[in-house]
Amino acid sequence: MPWCTGCDRFLSPATVSPDGTCPKCGRAVDPGRAHAPAVEPAVGGDAAERRERRRARAERASRVDDPDEETLPVPWHLKLLVGAVALYLGYRAYEGIAWVVGRF
Ligand SMILES: [Zn+2]
Predict the structure, then answer these.
(1) Number of domains in the chain
(2) Is residue 77 located within the same domain as residue 101?
């Protein structure tokens, strides 16, 4: 970010005159290597680095999840249990409906 030593303030790059001077005092604007550029790339790099790390972690997590879902077969006793529960609940539902119908 450009730094004007005369006004002692930062200038946004858009407000700096095309010839590289401060629009207020007309001084040549100090690019401010000691001030802003040391801060700006560090902030930008930090955010980019954090974003990259988050993306890599999400990618790794999805890579770990996929083989688990593909290679783990449903155990036969779980299928048997689900089938038995469905059969039982269906029978109880039929019983309940028959009981309600029988009351009228
Ligand atoms: Zn100035």
Answers:
(1) 3
(2) yes
| 74 C-alpha to ligand 1 centroid (Å) | 73
Residue 101 banded pLDDT, cuts 50, 70, 90: very high
| Centre of ligand 1 from the C-alpha of residue 41, in Å | 23
* Co-location of 80 and 67 in the same domain: no
Does residue 40 fall inside a structural domain?
no
Helix (H, G, I), strand (E, B) or coil at 10: strand
CB atoms within 10 A of CB 30: 16
How far, CA to CA in Å, does 82 sit from each of 69, 73, 76, 94?
A: 19, 15, 10, 18
Cα(11) to centroid of ligand 1, in Å? 8
Residues 58 and 84 in one domain: no
**How far does residue 1's CA lie from ligand 1's centre (Å)?**
13
Show the domain range for 11.
1-32
User: Whole-structure pTM over 0.70, yes or no?
Assistant: no
C-alpha 43 – ligand 1 centre gap (Å): 25
